[in-house]
Amino acid sequence: MKHNRYFLCLITIVFINNVSAQDWTRYVRTSGHGCEINQIQAVMDDARKTHLFGIEVDNDITGRYSSFLIPEQKLKAIKAMADSAHAAKNYAFVYTAGLECITDNLMPKSRSLFRDHPDWAQRNVLGDPAVFGKEAAFWIPENSEDVWISPYATEWRERYMERIRQIAATGINGVYIDIPYWMTHFEGWEDTWASFDTYTVAEFKRRTGFNALTDFKPGDWSDPEFIAWVDFRINSMTEFMAEIDRNVKFINPKCQTIAEIYPGIGEEVARVGADVYEMYSVVDVIAHEYNVGDNSAKREPLDWMEYMIGMYTFKAFAEGKPTWMLSYSWDGEDNILPSDAIENLAMSQVMAGANSWDAKRFVMSGSNDYDARTRVYKWIAEYEKLIYAPRKPIAPVGIYFSPKTRNYFPDEWIEVYKGIFHLLLREHIEFEIITLRTLSTAMTNLLILPDVKCISDEEFNQLESWLKKGKTLIYTNETGYFNDKREISNKKMRMENLSGTYTNAIQISENTGKKFFDFLEGNFNQSVYEGEYPYYKSNELNNLLDLIHNYKNFLPTIKIENADVCVSQIAAVDGKPTIFLANFSGLKGSENANQIPDKNIKVTFNNAGSDAHIVFIPFLGKSQELYGEWHNGSLIVNLPEIKRGAIIQLN
Prior knowledge:
Blueprint: H1 2-8, H2 40-49, E1 55-58, H3 65-69, H4 72-87, E2 92-97, E3 100-103, H5 113-116, E4 131-132, E5 145-148, H6 154-168, E6 174-178, H7 198-208, H8 224-251, E7 256-261, H9 268-272, H10 276-279, E8 285-288, H11 301-318, E9 323-325, H12 338-352, E10 355-356, H13 370-387, E11 397-400, H14 403-408, H15 413-426, E12 431-434, E13 446-449, H16 457-468, E14 472-476, H17 494-501, E15 505-508, H18 512-529, H19 539-549, E16 558-561, E17 566-573, E18 576-583, E19 602-605, E20 614-618, E21 624-626, E22 629-631, E23 634-638, E24 645-650
Parallel strand pairs: 1-2, 2-6, 6-7, 7-8, 8-9, 9-10, 11-12, 11-13, 13-14, 14-15
Antiparallel strand pairs: 3-5, 4-5, 16-19, 17-18, 18-24, 19-23, 20-21, 20-24, 22-23
């Protein structure tokens, strides 16, 4: 009868009318809190005072063995929190662990998850269980047992999904799932390619016919059986999150499923098994615990550029779904004010269209400066409709992201991708990130494939259709040498054959992106400390730029000048050409968090109407109108001084 009691709670769910259930996640600005009944009033006071929208609370039913067994008290607290949030015309979502479970206050003869169910634990290839103590991670308490569980442990999974349904039945607006990973991120486990527990090995054998214990050596990328293992591990985590979402929606169709994922766009994805590209298709929101170069206060200029590249890429994977950033601002750096670190972090997220999560140090709750949070969140609330409206491409250059190439060539491909992206950012060229899912609907007429080694038959056919429509394809180096299983393609020369058939398929033999990336790694930060972009001379790079600029359909709507160390995203927002501009000039990790103001940026809006004017909104400032000069049908405007960032829109 326990199941029915929580199922019937469905009829008591309260929903808010001011923002639709599908929309509230788009406007979230949040921070974390506890979720006991005696904490709720303080949580609501914090939300009201600091302009939170979408309130995170945490009582971790599935991540603590005691409440995994007996959840009733925590369920009551979640329902009370949901009711309080709704009464305040706000929304709340609750944290619960994915595959990690802690038994607190472990005694010699007390129950624990591992003592009760040793078969549930993930294991390395030697059979060692993924069981840890306080020394493994800061969040594991003294005298506690931390177990990482196999998603294929049948009894555990059934009970876990029951708990998910019970949480959804409380009326909470979102279920937030942390750490749906294979255990490869604690010290000593990084290269294990776990898990080799009985349940997981059996499921892999059932699906592929391969024995994970004997048929390959973990880490051998030349072995097709290991490639099958890599794919299986990624699919397993995606399927696990998809099942969670089905259980949530079965009870409460308006409750949102949110996954917290730390792997970004690099090599760690294949190891951990949580691929945000795949997961965005099965959840409503992803909260990215993404900290390029550590926290905001420690971040170097090149780290900031790559943080932006990561967020832009996440947004492309999301295809319109919200992207939340659980990134950290400050951890006691002596020369950096917490307020400056908070402002820089929020500014970068706003300019990428991502949602902010303020927290103290490296936890999910609190703040390093509540006044700074209040100031930032109040400003975001004022301009949220502009910040989080869909950003539609106008006249972009496309850059292709290949998850398969990233998964199978993890140590080399991502640097090529970033190198080409850095070039587009340096030139302030409007960009559109394309994947297999969006290739057929892409707005761009010019697409760059940055050494996309792995191309499936489906991708190749779409690329050929692209060329038949008269669009241009620029591909570099070893594009298409491998199929989507990392096998050398039996049609290895098919890309070259395309170039022989279509003049609009252009090959660049040099690895231009990798060379530019290597140059920036060695030279970028030192130049940006002084407010300058480093000079780079390269015939290959110039040839690529010439191909872009001389392309017959390259007709940029907006031209940005004198903004060397700014990052810009150009898009149409509500049909209006808009620039989201982030300034990183002069920043230096752990030493300086105040930019060199940009004073001479010039923007040209081509084909502007005769009655047009510019709206200029500096980060944390007020909207103001600008009027420029007309020249040959274009409106040219010199922008006011920009410190951290600004939004510029043609009206």
